[in-house]
# Entry
Amino acid sequence: MYGLVGVLVVLFIWWATTSIPVSTTTEVIREFQAHPSGDLMLGKHVEREVISSNPLISPRALATPQETLRGAWTLLTQSSDFQPSLLEHIYWSTRRVLIGFLISALIAIPLGTALALFPRARALFSPIISFLRPLPSISWVPLAVIWFGVSEFEKLMILFMGCFTAALLYTMEAALKVDPVLIRAARNLGASERQILFKVLLPAAMPNIFAGLKVVLAIAWTCIIS
# Structure
């Protein structure tokens, strides 16, 4: 509720400072009326006074809300052979983000869970993960262009490589945070490793995994913007 009130206050201030006149300017415009013979120099000299209203902020510095809405509608709906509309850009960006995010999550969740279950595998891959962990997502752009060229696949690979490491780490940490008492209790009750994985470990780790995936989705949007 308070957020909506804040937005309305900002919109009102925007409209007031760009639309309500606070001063007027008087201009004298000189014109010449053509002589019936067609000679402008022999025409009648006319002066007319124009009074213009000046808002607090000039429209040249900040457009009014009405002008902004008209411009936004034009960007959203109008397209050409060389310039797609904003809706088309939004569609393709969203499509790429979702594909890259889903592929990285589908691979990272099983792999991260496996690394959490097997300490030797975790120790083996830990140096590689530690090397990839601090790399920003935008650092993959030059390598992706060299490896895959400028194409749709290259864009998807940038998103995948930017999201995969983060998704892997969040999944592994979520699985490692599961209370070991739950796993020991399941083993003592005769549960198999498969049952422990799907009925104990993953359900207990899933809230933290989804919390990490929200961050990964934000990383995907950062990749597509960069």
Notes: The chain has eight helices and two strands. The beta strands are 21-33, 44-55. Residues 38-43, 45-52 have pLDDT under 50 and may be disordered.
